[in-house]
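Hi W.,

Here's what went into the run:
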Amino acid sequence: MSGFGGFVLRRGVGTVITLLAISVIVYVVFFVTPGNVAQITCGPRCSPEQVHQVAQQLRLDDPLYLRYWHFLQGILVGQDYSTGTSVEHCSAPCLGLSYQGDQQVTQLILAKLPVSLSLVFGAMVLWLILGVGTGVLSAWRRGRFTERLLTGITLAGVATPVFVIGLVLMIVVCGQLQLLPFPQYVSLTDDPEQWAWNLLLPWLSLALIEAATFARLTRASMLETLAEDHIRTFRAYGVGERSIIGRHALRGAFAPIIALNANNVGSAVGGAVLTETLFGLPGIGQELVHAVNVVDLPVVVGMVLVIGFFVVIANAVADVLYAVADRRVVLA
Amino acid sequence: MSEALVASQAAGTDVSVPAASGARQFWRRLRAQRAALVAAAVVALLVLVALAAPLLTAIEGQDPFTYHPSLIDSARGGVPTGSFGGITGDHWLGVEPQTGRDLFARLVYGARVSLGVALGATVVQVLIGVVVGVAAALGSRWVDQLLSRLTEIIVAMPLMIMSLALLAIVPSSFPRPLLVALVIGLIAWGNTAKIVRAQTLTLKQLDYVSAARLSGWGTWRIARRELLPGLAAPVITYAALLVPMNITVEAALSFLGVGVKPPTPSWGQMLTAADVWYQAAPQYLLLPAGALFVTVLSLTVLGDGIRTALDPRAASRLRIGTGRKGEAKADASTKGASGKDAGTKGDVRTEGATTKSTNSKEATS
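Here's what came out:
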């Protein structure tokens, strides 16, 4: 198979395999923990009956491959769970039941997803604009004071953990200056204006850090392109500096920016966990931290899988975009 | 790897001579960068503080674990008594709100945790990365496929999320700092393995490795004697960038309350409650935040400096490490050409992406 379609198809198959492998690894790692899994998942205050019920729910008596198979079945076609007295149907994609009030993990995640998506996508727009803009500016003003200043700022940005900048922003803006109230999530569909205002600080905290990485990358790849022969030819033909920077050099930075943006989806999700916890936003990240603290394994596994799913899809999409930006990838 | 080195190794002469001159050249190039030197000094100071933590706290006459209920005002919700968050001759940086534990002692002991966990995690990452990368590059097609797939999967797992989840299921009796280092190391070795594999594929095609193979050397001996020296530069470069990244991850996990747990002090953990106390004791926020910032910044600058010093192309661009410019250029062109030869399907992208992303902070922020 060759050509662009073949490349996309191969990449798609690879993505499915990766997702399956991740689900196996995550499932095995979390449900083959040492000790009494039922007791751990149920918590120390569970009665023996409850422990027994959990063991039944997890099908702990079945061999592992069978348990994984049921789990996979649940994701693909749904599953029925007996909750003591009644039978509850959990439709596909079913990720199991939470031990906190028997809630369906899928419903729990779906309820929290809009918050996290609002946070990450809003921040992504910000960090791409800020990062690429800063990178272009410092490549354009190379050797000048502006470049040095921007290089210093971006270096500081790279060195600051996201929760530190978030903490400082929150204390200064909300606490000391009282310019904004402490963020409280408002749904986009309820009130778009309040939604944006309340997410402004979380967006900034997440975006400033990521923007620094993008600024460094954009600057480096633009400087690399600027040193190439075809740019010298453009200059010799009398093409203006603005056009060289804005059109030709920037084009050279596109492919690496796309690749980094995909790589950074994973890191941004990690940053989102911190941002959500810090600002008290009720997203997936905050729920995951909560689930981890109460050892609610089905929720943990479900969240890790869903987040892994997004990261893998982002990587696959980026690969295809990368191939569009740089056709040598397909030819190689 | 210079032409001279290639020639001398193919002829079977002692490897240590050119290696030593390589180290000398590295120092010269590192010394030529002022920012990297300052950063190296700061890092050295931090390591010293971490190592001498018991000594420093002994001089102060405090320890990081003792509660001082007399120094906090329980009527005002646990705020330290006295001005400036309880700074006195006995407590150089004041005391922690609510518990009254000595802040200076917790800060310097926190340096131990921060640097220790980051270094431990980096060692694990480098060990696994080198073994998997070299094995993938030298092994049969089947082994390569298997290991490369595994690496892809590991890279796709978000570090923060996975370590958060993994830390939840391990019993709390396991020593926590060691656990955090292990978890970070076991999850985030993917990029190291990718870089090592790409570099090994490049090296494998060089004449001196073929010469070694033709003279009947086994794979293991070739890997150890001929390939590992050539891998040192990219691995050291990447490891230097991993350390600050790992520091940030540890701090983030401890901030979330799943990393290093009290009473063991950690900078990230100190920041957990900082937003509640910043008005009464601003240093409770500023000290750990500042310590994290300075540490990560100096390690990042040092890492950049190390990369420049080890990259012949970057060094010649900076016009340092003079005298061997022609050689450096020749080296750069060989590297580029063989990189393309070695690249199968995804490799062109991998190489481009990895060299580019060494700029960046990668997995977490």
